[in-house]
Amino acid sequence: MGALVSLLPARATVAVVLGLMALSLDTRQILRAFARPTPVALALVISFGILPFAGWALGNWLLQEDLRIGLQVATSVPCTMAAAIIWTRMGGGNEAVALLITLLTSGLSWMTTTAWLTCTTAAEVKLDAGELMLTLVLTLIVPVGLGQLLRAPASLRGLADRWKPALSVLAQLLVLVIILQAVVLASRSVGSSLQAQLGQLALVSALCLAIHLLGLGAGYYGGFVLGLPADERIAAAIAGSQKTLPVSLVLITSYFSAFPLAVVPILVYHIGQLVLDSLVIECWARQRGAG
User: How many domains does the chain have?
Assistant: First the structure.
């Protein structure tokens, strides 16, 4: 299976996934979300401020530099695109706000992710900031821009809307391939020394879950302090705390290949956010029902 999933290069796969997702995004929803900037700003502070800072601060508890780097990468990348919108919808949140958050984090990542990684991993690896920025632009901004550009003609927009379910399924299948790539890399990295590394692996797993919960709480309760309605708090909480595994994997394989265990935190964070968010939105749904 490892040889099979390795046939698809990570960068190209991520670019195709983002292009397909952008092709199916309704631009009118994005424009409507600009009228509600507060939850978007809150999510950006969480995604590119609170979470990467927590990854750096709590990463000092880890003895292995591989795991420290992996945790920093996992917390410094932009928001997921499909998952954040789906989970926001499931939780009764504002999808338009979640959509704008995902697009803005992707659009700003070339600058913010580069800044965090060059500052926090300088002791372990020398990063070329310009090259890293270019990688993020080509992987994130160009595919999303092309996807939205293809929607400009009415005929193509109608075709994309009619085929939206198929495009979403194809994108999710490619995401599954990326997840399998991460699983294969993680299994190779851990290898036969699992028992010796068990304590550190357990610790980094706990840190991933704690940081994600921190982001969820900051979005939901921070939004409450700011006077946001429940649907916008949910969007800020989910889109502000979720992180994209595909982009993390691109960065790990392209710039941190000398640290094989770095793939473990990005995989744990991704799986953890899906499980935790599923549980949390159930609680929110029960609260709304009780209210």
Answer: 1
For residue 107, with 0-12 CB atoms within 10 Å meaning exposed, 13-18 middle and 19 or more buried, which class applies?
Answer: middle
* Neighbouring residues of 144: CB distance < 8 A, sequence distance ≥ 6: 18, 19, 21, 22, 103, 106, 107
Q: Within 10 Å of residue 134's Cβ, how many Cβ atoms?
A: 13
The structure tokens 């294969």 sit at 184
Q: What are phi and psi of 159, to 5 degrees?
A: -65, -45
> Exposed, middle or buried, 152 (CB in 10 Å: 0-12/13-18/19+)?
exposed
- One-letter identity of residue 200: Q
Domain encompassing residue 9 = 2-290
By C-alpha distance, which of 78, 95, 90, 195 is closest to 139? Answer: 78
CB 259 within 8 A of CB 189: no
pLDDT at 7 over 50: no
| CATH number, residue 133 | 1.20.1530.20
* Positive/negative CA dihedral, 121, 83, 14, 206: positive
Percent of the chain with pLDDT over 70: 91
- Give tens-digit pLDDT for 136-195: 888 888 888 888 888 888 888 888 888 877 877 787 777 777 777 777 777 776 665 555
